[in-house]
Amino acid sequence: MSRRSALRLLGAAGASFGFSATLRSATTPPQESTMPPALPGSTGPGPNPYWNSVGMYVNEPQKAPLLLLTDRPVQLETPRHYFATAFTPNDAFYVRWHLDGIPNAIDLKNWRLRIDGNVTKALSFSLPDLMRKFPAQTVAAVNQCSGNSRSRFQPRVPGGQWGNGAMGNAKWTGVRLSTLLSAAGMKSGSLQVQFQGLDTGMGPEGYGSKAFLKSLAVTNPVLEDCLIAYAMNGEPLPLLNGFPVRLVVPGYFATYWMKCLTWIRVLDKQDENFWVKTAYRIPDTPRGATTPKEVKAGTVKTVPIHRMPVRSFLISPDGGSKIPAGMDVILRGIAFSGYGRVNELEVSDNDGKTWLPAQLGEDFGAYSFRTWEFRWTAKKPGRYFISVRATDKTGNIQPDEPVWNPGGYLWNRIERQEITVGVAE
Ligand SMILES: Nc1nc2c(c(=O)[nH]1)N[C@H]1C(S)=C(S)[C@@H](COP(=O)(O)O)O[C@H]1N2
Ligand SMILES: [Mo]
User: Fold this and answer.
1) Considering only Cβ atoms within 10 Å of each terminal Cβ, which end of the chain, N or C, has fewer?
2) 287 is a domain residue
3) Is the same domain home to 383 and 236?
């Protein structure tokens, strides 16, 4: 048995005993009655009504107990309570890989980051080179999987059935991608910059893609914001989150945030690899929405997924315990958008009929989580539905309609949480 699978087994065994059992009771799932109503024409069970996915807790190396989504490749979700603060601890940060051949260890003596392809001068850097030869930059940015909240989709779509915990926010420190690209000198005719990590594997059946490759167009202004990060919240990245360096693409979905980055290639042709041409594409429609019927008809034009739509979450209280009537409670949560900072957060305690502004927390930059709080007093006992909605600088506001596309991407519907208020005794 390998060390990894031994550790995994230990983690799984641990999950059935004390530690994670305590965590679990702190996030008691809501009752059946809080299931959102089934949508017209739906079949089968309704969307996942729980905040998180419904997995057991596991311990992976360098990680706190996290919710297991799949183990090959390893995919772990962050439990709700970790989102009470603007920054997600490294050990609680969610994990997503596509291929099962992920690195177990990195030998920094031999590890290099290469830049080649359509450049004047191919370059290669050791980790100390990156840390010493270039100025360090820091950005607070949300890393969110394109499929975050996929378990809400109705009808269901294939792919990891994430709850809301396939996201995290960190302060990323590293070298600007543009600095390295200028050092190498992009030649004329350059179309895309392609990124590759150290992981290998079979990829989806029938596609034979042995590597996970992503590209961004050389004309995309986001390249200027990209960092090659060697620190996450002031510490080395956990291996599962991309040690020694990963690409950070502020405002963009995490699919571009290449982990264990080792190879940057400047292409003079369009990238036709599976992960760009076939996967991670969204309908070229408002909100990226389509219908199963249109997909079947083959009429949906698609584009690569890009920026993250505005979202917000209530983190506490989580509905797991009754609140005494007449008592002040502070509702707390987070919000973010890939289209510019969140500048308005509203709360409704009557299922969206009326809204009141919440107090926004410290501003850590346009691409960070922003915390919010709202003092709430329910005078009468009963069931309340708390909804939260954010508006970003671009004027995007969260809608109360679900979105549907075959990839299970771009979910940003207004969240609602049932809270029971009891008689004060
Ligand atoms: N090398 C490599 N980088 C990768 C991936 C991968 O499979 N391999 N998956 C991407 C996707 S789709 C996501 S959601 C994020 C997840 O980042 P995390 O595991 O640090 O949370 O990594 C991105 N970078
Ligand atoms: Mo992802």
Assistant:
1) C
2) no
3) no
- Give the residue whose CA is nearest to atom 6 of ligand 1: 97
Q: Give the Cα separation of 4 and 33 in Å (integer).
A: 41
Residue 210 Cα, ligand 2 centroid: separation in angstroms?
Answer: 17
Does residue 286 lie in a domain region?
Answer: no
Please spell the DSSP secondary structure of 314-334, one letter per residue.
Answer: EEES-SSS-EETT-EEEEEEE
Of 258, 279, 300, the residue at which a domain comes to its end is: 279
Q: Are residues 316 and 187 in the same domain?
A: no
Which ligand lies nearest to the CA atom of residue 62 in the structure?
1
Q: Are 156 and 114 within one domain? A: yes
Pair (69, 187) in one structural domain: yes
| Mean pLDDT, residues 302-321 taken together | 96
- This prediction's pTM: 0.89
DSSP string covering 175-222: EEHHHHHHHH-BPTT--EEEEE-S-B---STTT---S-EEEEETT-GG
State pLDDT tens for residues 320-353. Answer: 999 999 999 999 999 999 999 999 999 999 989 9
CATH number of the domain within which 384 lies: 2.60.40.650
How confident is the model over 68-110, as pLDDT tens digits?
999 889 999 999 999 999 999 999 999 999 998 999 999 999 9
Mean pLDDT of all residues belonging to the chain: 89
319 vs 148: CA distance, rounded Å: 21
Q: What's the domain count of the chain?
A: 2
**Ligand 1 pocket: which of 78, 82, 96 to mutate (most atoms <8 Å of CB)?**
96
What residue owns the CA closest to ligand 1's atom 24? 258
Looking at the CA of 146, name the nearest ligand: 2
Q: Is the shortest distance between the CB of 95 and ligand 1 below 6 Å?
A: yes
Same domain? 265 vs 342: no
Ligand 1 center–CA 423 separation, angstroms: 47
260 pocket-lining for ligand 1 (C-beta < 6 Å): yes
Looking at the fold, whether 252 and 370 belong to one and the same domain comes out as: no
Ligand 1 atom with the shortest distance to the CA of 95: 19
Q: Express each pLDDT in 353-406 by its tens digit.
A: 999 999 999 999 999 999 999 999 999 999 999 999 999 999 999 999 999 999
Cβ–ligand 1 contact at 148 (below 6 Å): no
User: In this predicted structure, what is the pLDDT of residue 424?
Assistant: 67
pLDDT over 70, % of the chain: 87
Specify the residue for token string 């970790």: 82
Per the structure, the complete domain to which residue 343 belongs is given by 311-422
Question: Whole-angstrom Cα distance, residue 28 to residue 324?
Answer: 18
How far apart are the CA of 153 and the centre of ligand 1, in A? 22
